[in-house]
Target: Nucleoredoxin-like protein 2
Amino acid sequence: MSELFGAKQLLTKAYFDEVPYGEKKDDNFGTTTAEEALAGKVVCLFFSALWCAPCQHFIHMLRDVFAELRRRKEPIEIVFISFDKTEKDMLEYYKNSHGEWLALQFGDNFKELLAEKYSISVIPKLVVIQPNGNVISSKGRKEVQDKGIVCMRGWHSTLLRPVEPKEEQNGDDAAIS
Model:
């Protein structure tokens, strides 16, 4: 993952969860380096936004699947890439709706590079990649919805081998602008 994210700092909810209830603020998030957090794992890039109705529907399932995979100690990490209009919306969405995964900081221009590299034109989108950035699946959302935690078997089996790009059809998605 160091080839794709390098030493980029990603937000983590770990620190937020340690802050006493009465002292929590929107900026009580920790950071971690991508190299440390993503090494040797299947990485799911989750492109989403608070304003997106299909995102709101999908995130509950993703959170449950991710929690179960974590409980089973599967080598997986999710990185939320926000298409929210404001930092306040992004942090509220991340804090209140997302699972215990990472997030690219709001306003980071790396979002545009990732959106272009992985051809993001609608959200929600879950792109599953190898540590080097090669795509395992561009249909992660459909696979999570159809297979639940079983999707990890296929993702993990391709973790270290090349994967050919696949075409994708978009259905119940929100266009990004």
